[in-house]
Amino acid sequence: MKKSDLSDLAQRTPEPPVSWLMASALANPQLISLAAGFTDHATLPLAETTDLFRELLRRPRIGRAALQYGTTAGDPELRHLTSRRLHALDTAAAGTPPPSGVCDPERMVITSGSQQLLYMLSECLCNPGDLVLVEDPTYFVFLGIVQSHGLQCRGVRMQADGLDLDHLEAQLESLRRSGQLRRLRLLYLVSYYQNPTGITTRLQKKRHALALLQRFERHAGHPLFLVEDAAYRELRFHGADVPSSLTLPGAARRVIYAGTFSKPFATGVRVGFGLLPDGLRQAVLRVKANHDFGTSNLLQQLLRQALATGHYEHHLQALRPRYAAKARHMANALQRHLPHDVAWVPADGGLYVWVTLPPSMPTGRTSAFFQHALAHNVLYVPGELCYACDPARPKPNHAMRLSFGGATPRAIRLGIQRLGDTYQELSP
Ligand SMILES: Cc1ncc(COP(=O)(O)O)c(C=O)c1O
Hints:
By secondary structure, the chain is α/β, with parallel strands linked by helices.
């Protein structure tokens, strides 16, 4: 079949980087992959899941219901429990409850991974040629969705405590001046232990970002949404939780919150959720009805049980010290094996450490560094994949995203040592 026989969308969709990263890892069993966003294998909740399924399927009425189709919006009890958990998280983090109704189950959609929500948002809010604002760098799979849908991106620089608000304002102002604000639809933020940098955005910054979007709406002529992707929120191992954007004034109308059970429970389960403003939620439900008319009911029931019985919380408590230890292994190894002109910040949560090499040491897929690292049997995500195609700047190409999630502590140490060897080899 010729490429031109495919739809515009299919033609705009290149092979996702995640495919060749996975293929490289599978092709070579000796390879240490610090690339994939996999979670810790040994702590996946095997015993808990076995118990939960046994309990679920033991009673014929409940068991049969779980094996039947559910609803498009998702199981009401799972929505209720998820909404209660989120309300409690935000109340504890902010010291006061979020605005009334903002976390309600009636505003929630259960999705097949939060990835499905991100995809449906692009479908429901954007047309080809439209614009989205993303962090610079951002979650590279979101960039794939954007490219598939024929959208353009503008990157907003990051600071140690999140989005650079001056740059956000400058980007909005530049779009206004060039008449492109009418094409802007949303700002996408991975606000907790960001993929790829590990940065968490302060609440104050989220507040200002939302206010800026609201200020520029007048010129856009339509709503500008703040999409808060909180995929890593619960994988916190140091410091206090940060309140979500749902706690901000105006959140019910303009904030879209994307959450997932993949990272804190089991990536294989792939159940996520979204809280959406009215109107948009209806549109997402109609589109979801065409996608799959509801996320796997059995898996939703599993999570419902996990939340209701406390297994979920128990698992999370076991997970956090494990990730803290792995992050420490990575930090110690980076300290030991990489020279001083290589910059990185230890992780407080999530799965990633963003390592910036000097500009003289590019890390892209075709670079000497990437090829030598492969020859040393170690794989990372080239930083350039995480940058949008923004005409306003060349893509930075000398960083790498390292994950401490899936690898064992020994593999983490060895992998970093190999990256250190690679660096030494290529240093002048
Ligand atoms: C920032 C971010 N958002 C969303 C997702 C999608 O997660 P899932 O679809 O498993 O919920 C990921 C997965 O790695 C991610 O890193």
